[in-house]
Specification:
Low-confidence stretches: none
Radius of gyration: 18 Å
Bound molecules: flavin mononucleotide
Helix content: 25-40%
Number of strands: 14
Largest sheet: 8 strands, parallel, barrel
Strand order of the largest sheet: 3-4-7-8-9-10-13-14
Order of helices and strands: HHEEEHEEEHEHEHHEHEEEHEHEHH
């Protein structure tokens, strides 16, 4: 059954959605996700206590995380019933943001498969409006609230406000398409102060989302500073910055299978360097059970994806979980 639904999604995506301009396809996809109560169908989930993991001390029913992209409470609520062990919100900013002008998302076909380049620019309703939705959101699966700011004060205000309603808070210091956020990785001293201030502001487990474009700074300065401040979870990571003349900003973040080899390599290096002290969410390019398994075998605590959710459909989580369960059963024999 799950294979048939995955094939149906591929046909709809390949034959219809992919032929529309990307912004229209996304609007159609999100409208469908809002309208169809897919989360009520047990077929998209696989509940098995053997798949449970802990992330920053928080129990997750399984190691799959929907990466940051959605802030609509209906979509977040649906996603919580689609097999994920945790769901991440879009990065919320203090003030509402319209995002960058269209086109801010384009498809890209690479030798590795279909991906996106986006310069979304944090289109979101801002903290005050989002808090109204956040307070009413059930935590059917653990909720990771992502925040993004331009100053230490921004992050302290954001994290303090959302923490009481989040299982974990992820702070995004790596999105490639707003200069102020992307530049955090070039200001390691200030970033270290940011980690200390945010850690002191809330007791909820925190995740730092890293950029794959700053591997040296991540390993030499940023991860050690996070650990020193008492933050022991990283999400590695965000989209990779590339030039893309089709976008309104002329550049954006590449996501999808093209970035998977770097995700795996970055994970391997930091697992070896920082050992078991660090919990690692490996994100970037996962669009098949094999890739998720490869990351978990290489030492990921959990695996995140967004692009695969669109290109492979809502069945992907269940397919990955089925594979993980079969692997565990084989290993136990
Ligand atoms: C349209 C779009 C919007 C995104 N918005 C956010 C965001 O608000 N915050 C964030 O940390 N990452 C954001 N991301 C990055 C994803 O969460 C993820 O880290 C990245 O796409 C790599 O994973 P993937 O290859 O599985 O998509 C966005 C990605 C896309 C494609």
């Amino acid at each position: 059954m799950s294979r048939r639904i995955a094939a149906l999604y591929r046909a709809v995506y390949g034959g219809f959605l992919r032929r529309l301009p990307e912004s229209t396809a996304i609007a159609v996809g999100q409208a469908a996700l809002r309208a169809l109560p897919l989360d009520r169908l047990p077929l998209f989930r696989l509940d098995d206590p053997a798949l449970a993991v802990r992330l920053g001390g928080v129990p997750l029913p399984n190691p799959l995380i929907l990466a940051a992209m959605y802030y609509d409470p209906v979509i977040l609520r649906r996603a919580m019933g689609l097999g994920f062990g945790a769901v991440t919100t879009k990065s919320i900013t203090l003030n509402p943001r319209p995002g960058h002008p269209q086109p801010n998302l384009v498809r890209i076909e690479t030798a590795a498969g279909a991906g996106f380049v986006n310069c979304n620019g944090f289109h979101n309703p801002g903290l005050v409006a989002f808090m109204r939705d956040l307070r009413g959101l059930p935590h059917r699966a653990p909720l990771i609230v992502s925040v993004a700011g331009e100053s230490i004060e921004d992050y302290v205000r954001l994290v303090s406000a959302v923490a009481p309603h989040a299982d974990l808070v992820e702070f995004n210091v790596s999105s490639p398409n707003t200069k102020q956020v992307y530049d955090w990785s070039r200001r390691s001293d200030e970033l270290a102060r940011l980690f200390e201030s945010v850690r002191a502001a809330a007791s909820v487990p925190l995740i730092v989302k890293l950029s794959p474009d700053f591997t040296e700074a991540n390993e030499r300065e940023i991860i050690p500073a996070a650990l020193a401040a008492g933050i022991n979870v990283v999400n590695y990571g965000n989209a990779r910055r590339i030039d893309e003349p089709r976008l309104s900003q002329g550049a954006g973040g590449l996501s999808g299978p093209e970035i998977f080899p770097a995700t795996l390599a970055n994970l391997r290096r930091i697992r070896q360097k920082f050992g078991a002290d660090l919990d690692i969410v490996a994100t970037g390019g996962v669009d098949s059970p094999e890739k998720a398994v490869a990351l978990l075998r290489a030492g990921a605590t959990a695996v995140g994806y967004f692009t695969g959710f669109v290109t492979r459909g809502p069945m992907l989580a269940r397919q990955i979980l089925t594979r993980l369960r079969a692997d565990r059963a084989r290993a136990a024999r």
